[in-house]
Design a protein that fits this description.
Blueprint lengths: L2 H24 L1 E5 L5 E4 L11 E4 L5 E5 L5 H34 L3 H45 L6 H47 L3
Antiparallel strand pairs: 1-2, 1-3, 3-4
Length: 209
């Protein structure tokens, strides 16, 4: 680079800096004071530095606006809204994923109903078997309790082995009842789930969202 080129470049940079400085010098900053009165000046007082600032050019036109800093309450509200938007977006994606699974699993409404009926029938069958086993345990317990009662009526203390059998069988019956209760709850949830799936499947097939 020749000296003349360097000199020209330096002059251009200086001219641009001077021009920028002159433009900025013409711009006035305006704000609203604590009494609601609009004030303007070259420098914003520190107590209003976080308020809404308008930059005005030499023709009185607003060329830039610096919004006021948000209060903690406003920031909290904004954060809450953003979290709500995020949750809604996650729900939308999850709904789309479940819809895709539903449509890929069942081709027709008849397929879904058939699957529902088969699953419910199988679950109910398991419950019936468990109830049958429970009835058998309760019958055995009644017989053992009757044996213990016979000993007591005869003025004898029931054998320790008999007492242990009654305790063990009573515990088995309690656990069996809990298992049956859990299976019945699962069956009810299954019926409700298939009900929701059937409703959604019909909506998707009819083009409703």
């Amino acid at each position: 680079m020749t000296n003349s080129v360097r000199l020209f470049t330096a002059l251009m940079i200086t001219a641009l800096l001077l021009l920028t400085s002159q433009v900025n010098a013409k711009n006035i900053k305006c704000w609203v004071n604590k009494n609601g009165i609009r004030e303007c000046g070259r420098v914003v007082p520190p107590e209003y530095s976080q308020t809404r600032i308008e930059i005005v050019n030499d023709r009185g036109l607003v060329v830039e606006v610096i919004e006021a800093a948000k209060t903690p309450e406003e920031l909290a509200i904004e954060k809450e809204r953003e979290e709500l938007r995020r949750l809604r977006e996650e729900e939308r994606k999850e709904r789309a994923r479940l819809d895709s699974i539903l449509l890929n699993t069942y081709t027709t409404e008849r397929d879904l109903i058939l699957a529902r009926d088969n699953n419910i029938k199988a679950a109910q069958g398991q419950i019936d078997i468990s109830k049958g086993n429970l009835k058998l345990l309760e019958t055995n317990l009644a017989e053992l309790q009757e044996q213990a009662a016979n000993h007591e009526r005869a003025g004898r203390t029931p054998p320790e082995t008999l007492v242990d059998e009654i305790k063990t069988l009573s515990l088995q019956i309690k656990k069996k009842k809990q298992i049956i209760e859990g299976k019945e709850i699962a069956l009810k949830e299954m019926e409700e789930r298939f009900g929701r799936d059937l409703k959604r499947f019909r909506e998707l097939k009819s083009g409703r969202n």
